[in-house]
Amino acid sequence: EGMVLSGMGAVLGFLIAVAGTRFLASLDAVSVPMLSTVRIDPAALAFTLLTAVATGVLFGLVPALQMNALGMNETLKSGGRGSGRGQRHNALRGALAVSEIAMACVLVVGAGLLIRSLIRVLDLNLGFQPEDTATLRIDPGTRFKNAAQQNASLSDALHRVRAIPGIRSAGITDVLPLGGDRGWGVGVKGELYDRYHNHDAFVRIVTDGYFESIGIRLKAGRLLTEKDDATGKPVIVINETFARKIAPDGKAVGKVVLKASGDEREVVGVVGDVRHEALEKESGEEMYIPMRQTGDYGAVDLVVRSEMSTAQLAPALRAALRPLDSGISVMAIRTVQQLVDKAVSPRRFTVFLLSGFTLFALILASLGIYGVISYSVSQRTQEIGIRMAIGASARDVQRDILLQTLRLAAMGLGIGTAASWLLTRVIGGLLFGVSPTDPATFGIMLVVLTAVAAIAGYLPARRASRIDPMAALRVS
Length: 476
Hints:
By secondary structure, the protein is α+β, with helices and mostly antiparallel strands. It has helices spanning 2-25, 42-69, 72-79, 87-122, 147-162, 210-214, 240-246, 310-321, 336-379, 381-389, 394-423, 439-465, 469-473; strands at 133-139, 167-173, 183-188, 199-206, 218-221, 235-239, 256-259, 264-271, 286-290, 300-306, 329-335.
């Protein structure tokens, strides 16, 4: 009987696993290495079958051996008429329910911590505004003889895009937020710095209109303009973190930044910090160099802010850039929000998986409690009938059954809380802005599992309160 039950469970679990892995492999919005190759392989199938056989043998053999070891007289002495197979059996069933609750505690706390951490990440100030913003990858190619021709071609592309009705702003960058980084060693004129650098700053090559399009706020000075070209004065825009480093007094505008090669650029503006590397990482020192004053870039991204949908925007952009196809190749359009979603997708994927495991654990815990209490009620039918015959009310019976349920739940919660307190430190590296011992998460876990236990115990308690005393006393 144990083998049949475990085999049926294994088949059902295997079918769920096949469907689940196919669903996970089809997720395009999740950036997890080799996720699309996830399959149920022979080793996993063999492990499932072995587990099913071992479970069936273990949990089928132990009760069978106990029945052989206990004689009828001992069983009657241990349990009394209608009270089941004795206290040892009741204790074993109770221990299973307690262990299920304890394991559910660990999973609920783990999922709760990761969910709260994900919420904290999503609430972060990114430093830019991804809403209503789309990007289009542009490769200038190699046909241009010099940087001036390449810059002129990109300027032409910008003018054509800005002429499209519905486009509010457009700019070009060599590095999008959350899309990679490169750094330069620089110093500041007037500081004591070594031959190479005082500051290791992330550099972005951008055009005018980029800050307005991506939604980066100006804090001081001015933004880049179309006049910041090769004939103009070398300038640079820096972020707040860099500005605080070189000018604690708040007067960074006007400072001169130097490269190791001796090139000098005057700071003309300060903009807000942007989380370029990862959502969880604070911004470092950043500087924005006018694209028309350098040729130090390859493929770039056109960034546009528009109220049009992607479906409307894509053909309009391609039509505007079609005359430049001979020198510029245009790749797929995507929204900036997709970049943010992709950056947060590994964390969201972990939360999704653990939440699924937690849901299964809650179901198993509730079924375990229901099974233990329901079996106990069925074995105590005569006892309950006698109690009701001598005056116990239906409410009294329900209260006693629920108290039995909550005692099991309390033991499981006590063990599970202690285990969770110790084990959650293992996932500390996955958390952001949440302590592994977050009181709110532990409190929610206690409330959820207490509610699950109460519901699981209420159904057999309600059935027990409806027992007909006369019918129960006639049971032989």
